[in-house]
Amino acid sequence: MNVTHELNMSKIPNELKLLLEIIKSESEVDNEHFSKPDWDLFLELALHHRLYPLLYTKIAKLDYSWIPKKVIKSLHIYYQQNTFRMLHLSGEMEKLCKLFTENKIRPLFLKGPILAETLYGDISKRTSGDLDILVPINDLDKANELLIAQGYNKDEYIQTVLNDWKWRHHHFTYFHPMKGTKIEIHWRLHPSPSKEPSFDELWERKRVSSLTSYPTYYMGYEDLFYFLITHGARHGWSRLRWLQDINQIMQKEISWTFVKQLLNQTQSSHIGGQSLILASALFNTQINEELIPLLRKRPKKLAKAAIYYLEQMVNLHNEPVPEDIAKYHSNHLFSLMSIQQKGVYFLSILHPFHTDVETLSLPKKLHFLYFPLRPFLWIWRKTKNYVLLRRILR
Q: What is the DSSP pairing of strand 153-155 with strand 217-218?
């Protein structure tokens, strides 16, 4: 079923609307409604939203003589570069899967080439900058040793106190300086306060990929749907590739009854509704009748709020994020939480942060004292910053 939802898209760039029309259409798009597009912006948006591989394959099939040749040539170059990168990642994925499996680590690949092949049937039609691998938390040390031995360097950006890394964060990052390959080792799908299936549940429902000769595993379609909607929502759907993924997975044979149970268990039914409304509005996604009950008032409100991320090229991955965008995104993330998750979030604020250690350094055996000291350390930091600000303004 196709559901039309009225979202205010008047501030979305005309060039982005043209891009979406080309991707959605099975025939050549008439350019009458898209007069004098800014082709530099068109190309920039295709790159930002990571839709350029799919866009190029659409343009290459049809006669788009009204698109400047330099734009098509640029898309072709980026398309080729992405294909080579995905082939490289496919080889590294198979190698790491074999390495982990032989060392009794169960790896589940979350995205990368395995997702491109699963959803699009062709690794060249989707981009990926790294490999995301989910492993049991008890195997993190072993996985770290294996990756270091393979020449990977760990990015020690996580600052932690009293083991809060286990729930405040959800992955470690590794980079191979010679191969130029980035790896993210996950022990959770998302950071707290998300609710999600256990690793054993995900492993029990896993699927095997046909992309590699060595058995490589990824999540079952129902779990993958849950992961894709919650991952995209957590990033504000600021890259339309994530909504295109939703459009693709909706075409798979999925137990939607189980999906609804899973979304209910993980308190994310409203996020499922948000993703379907956005996918339907932007990609004409066909929505299964069983999922219509998800399209309620709250999901509609969340979908309307996500349009903000499409009105400009919001990049949440590059620090520092502009203050106005950071504030909007923080509020949007809070709006995605269930009542229970909001309760967990407020409780997590009472747990010591690494900034408390920076404010007052205590021996590790006395770190428990940061719990009663946290309010005072917070006040001290605020007071210190206020005094510093007054000195600067004098």
A: unpaired
How far, in Å, CA of 188 to CA of 186, rounded?
Answer: 5
Looking at residue 168, its amino acid is: R
Cα separation, 56 vs 43, in Å, equals 11
CB 208 within 8 A of CB 107: no
Decide if 7 is inside a domain: no
Q: Domain tally for the chain?
A: 2
List the 131-134 sheet strands across, edge first: 108-109, 131-134, 181-186, 171-176, 153-155
Please tell me the distance from the alpha carbon of residue 126 to that of residue 354, in angstroms, as a whole number.
37
DSSP letter for 66, please: T
Round the CA-based radius of gyration of the chain to a whole number and report it.
Answer: 23
368: containing domain? 352-393
Look up the pTM and report it: 0.92
Residue 104 backbone class (left: φ over 0; alpha: ψ -120 to 50; beta: rest): left
pLDDT tens by residue, 53-81? 999 999 999 888 899 999 999 999 999 99
